[in-house]
Design a protein that fits this description.
The complex is a heterodimer of chains A (202) and B (458). Chain A is α+β, with helices and mostly antiparallel strands and 202 residues long. In chain A, strands 2-4-5-9-8 form a five-stranded mixed beta sheet. In chain A, helix 1 packs antiparallel against helix 2 and helix 3 packs parallel to helix 4. Among the domains of chain B are: 131 residues, Response regulator (Rossmann fold, 3-Layer(aba) Sandwich), CATH 3.40.50; 87 residues, Serine Threonine Protein Phosphatase 5, Tetratricopeptide repeat, CATH 1.25.40.10; 90 residues, no CATH class. Chain B is built from 25 helices and seven strands. Chain B has a five-stranded parallel beta sheet, with helices on both faces. In chain B, strands 4-5 form a two-stranded antiparallel sheet. In chain B, helix 13 packs antiparallel against helix 14 and helix 16 packs parallel to helix 19. The model of chain B has no long low-confidence stretch (mean pLDDT 93). Classes of the chains: A alpha+beta (202), B alpha/beta (458). The interface between A and B is large, with 43 and 39 residues.
Chain lengths: 202, 458
């Protein structure tokens, strides 16, 4: 019935398994020879995330995307973004800092939100001079996840909407709770003076 | 960070290369001892003989088995101690959808590819969580429910508890359910739903309502879950169980039939299918399902006396009394003696049905116990059938009255009607039905309080 989708999903699945084999071999080589290959691993994980995102975008187009909402620890989500991005940004001379003020477990799609934040940090890293900041706070029973940078900010607001942005907006909206829906806001003049990416989740 | 060098890892994956990759990553985390299992059976064997500390299990295990099924099987046979970490490993996002819906979840899952650092982060967190709930787990395992609830209550008010606020609520609801406090369970699950509409919490509401015999409400709740998360098969099982309780056996069978096709190796579901098919009068499907269970549910201790009885019952329904008798007489004396009294009653009744000569004495011997005890719907129906066939109308009528006044009235009504009409006693059954209704009205007049739950309809 969903032949194309099945083909795409199984292709992505196989590719990610192959990438995992590659990553494990690189990790073993790093340990055995003491050579830092973090950037190679970063590239592998980025490729895998890209594949996942493509499949998600396809689901969104077919209107059968659904958030897999589980109670998640917000601090853990931030830690994982830190782990995934910090070294890579450091290579570019950019410092990533994290400040999570949210203690409570929150109902969200952990993988989807982590991926969105990874993507936002990656984007911020492209324009930042030297700093990117990820923060988590609550505001009137909303969870606010922000990525700020010290770059020049968005040239136009709203920015010329690329596919990535449209996908991210729709992913935010998949988070619904009672009558409230998640949203994505992009602005300038964030805490570091540059662009701000803000994901608000109910 | 914890020290993983002394932990014993078990990697379960049907693909050799993927196993190697998982081992390599585990070794980078510090693991020294990493064992392999290449398939489902091998995994169960290893876990049973020497339980590992950390299990990394791929979601797709081949041979139409999944890691989720393995997890369910391990829990079913109580092979996973609380201290053991079960981490599902998957290359695809779809497992997320499973985890977000179902009631039985692994400690965590991780999506490939991942780095040793990420695995370590995840394992550290699981250990922290296990430490946090340690005392509660112990109390729950010992079935000290009051203590367990108090522990959860205390955990709730700590700062660390905020990180697990939903988990605490979920555990609390599960303890209520395990302890038979179904009303508290219902309100605990409803409390969670006020925060977020988790499928597992709504299924919990349905489960609590079902246990209160509030069948229509339970059905409405579970229908919502099934419609929203069709891959949440346990919800489908619950829906089928509720359908049976409502007397809608065809619907129950259809639900189970469809799911059994998708999960051909789930033998608990096959047993449920056999039950629904039996009630639905589809003896062929019921027998096929039980034959599959007996042949393929290979875990030691998986086949119970009840399974043999269900198989014999299936043959009786198919009017193959010779095979039914063979199944019953195939049970060794020691096995029969180990049966519960209800199972012994079913055994005697079924034997009396297929071979009055061999079964009558045993059946008569248990008659006093049958008159004085309530063995549950399945056994009561067995007794009723045997009683009708040996002409013991007093016993048959008593069982009929019992069943129709009880919570399973709708479930067994069509069977009762068929059995009574088989013996030309439809009128007598209607009279029993009338008496039960009169008694109920009288009872309701006596206690003005409205009884909870649906009442069986005529």
């Amino acid at each position: 019935m969903h032949k194309l989708l099945d083909m795409l999903a199984s292709g992505v699945h196989d590719a990610k398994n192959q990438l995992f084999i590659a990553e494990s071999i690189i990790a073993a080589a790093e340990a055995a020879h003491g050579i830092p290959l973090g950037e190679a691993r970063y590239a592998i994980e980025s490729a895998a995330n890209r594949l996942t995102r493509t499949l998600t975008a396809y689901h969104l187009m077919r209107h059968d995307a659904a958030a897999a909402v589980t109670p998640s620890i917000v601090g853990d989500v931030c830690d994982e973004v830190m782990l995934a991005q910090k070294k890579h940004l450091a290579e570019l001379g950019i410092t990533l800092t994290v400040d999570c003020q949210v203690l409570d477990e929150w109902p969200l799609d952990r993988d989807l939100v982590t991926d969105m934040l990874n993507n936002a940090v990656q984007n911020a890293g492209r324009f930042a001079h030297q700093a990117v900041h990820l923060s988590a706070t609550t505001d009137d029973d909303w969870l606010c996840l922000r990525v700020d940078d010290d770059g020049p900010g968005f040239a136009t607001l709203p920015p010329a909407s690329g596919t990535g942005l449209v996908v991210a907006e729709r992913l935010a909206r998949l988070h619904a709770r009672h009558a409230r829906q998640g949203s994505l806001n992009l602005s300038n003049g964030g805490s570091l003076g540059g662009a701000r990416f803000e994901l608000r989740l109910p | 960070m914890s020290d993983y060098s002394k932990k014993r890892f078990l990697v379960i994956d049907d693909q050799a290369q993927a196993r190697d990759a998982l081992r390599t990553i585990a070794q980078q985390v510090g693991a020294f001892s990493v064992e392999f299992a290449s398939n489902y059976q091998d995994a169960i064997f290893r876990i049973r003989n020497n339980t590992p500390d950390i299990i990394l299990c791929d979601y797709m295990l081949g041979e139409s088995r999944s890691g989720q099924q393995l997890l369910e099987e391990l829990r079913r046979f109580n092979l996973l101690p609380d201290e053991t970490i079960f981490m599902m490993v998957t290359g695809e996002q779809s497992y997320e959808q499973v985890v977000s819906a179902v009631e039985l979840i692994p400690d965590d899952y991780i999506i490939k590819p991942f780095s040793p650092e990420k695995l370590m982060l995840r394992l550290d967190r699981i250990l922290a969580k296990k430490r946090f709930f340690d005392r509660y787990y112990k109390e729950k395992r010992k079935q000290e429910y009051t203590k367990a609830l108090a522990t959860l209550e205390a955990a709730c008010s700590t700062e660390e508890g905020r990180s697990y606020r939903f988990e605490i609520l979920r555990q609390r609801a599960e303890v209520f359910l395990a302890n038979g406090d179904v009303k508290s369970a219902e309100s605990a699950y409803r409390g969670i739903l006020e925060s977020y509409d988790f499928p597992w919490a709504r299924a919990g509401v349905a489960r609590s309502l079902h246990r209160q015999n509030r069948l229509q409400e339970a059905r409405e709740e579970i229908e919502r879950v099934v419609a929203r998360t069709p891959h949440f098969f346990d919800a489908g099982d619950l829906k089928a169980t509720i359908c049976m309780a409502q007397g809608e056996h065809a619907e129950a069978q259809q639900v189970l039939d469809e799911m059994a096709k998708k999960t051909p190796r789930n033998y608990l579901r096959k047993r449920l299918l056999a039950e629904a098919a039996t009630l639905n009068g589809d003896t062929e499907t019921a027998l096929a399902a039980m034959t599959d269970v007996l042949a393929n549910d290979t875990m030691p201790g998986a086949i119970s006396a009840e399974d043999r009885l269900a198989t014999a019952r299936g043959h009786v329904n198919a009017s193959d009394k010779i095979t039914a008798e063979r199944v019953l007489l195939g049970l060794r004396d020691a096995e029969v003696q180990k049966m519960t009294l209800a199972e012994q009653a079913s055994f005697a009744a079924l034997l009396a049905l297929c071979s009055p000569e061999k079964g009558k004495t045993r059946f008569a011997g248990l008659r006093p116990a049958m008159l004085s005890s309530d063995f549950g719907a399945t056994t009561n129906v067995d007794i009723l059938r045997a009683a009708l066939s040996v002409g013991d109308n007093e016993l048959a009528d008593l069982e009929a009255e019992h069943l129709m006044a009880g919570p399973d009235a709708k479930k067994v009504f069509s069977t009762l009607r068929a059995q009574f009409s088989l013996h030309g006693r439809e009128k007598d059954l209607r009279e029993i039905q009338r008496q039960v209704a009169l008694k109920r009205i009288h009872h309701e007049e006596l206690i003005t309080e409205k009884p909870a739950g649906d009442t069986p309809s005529a």
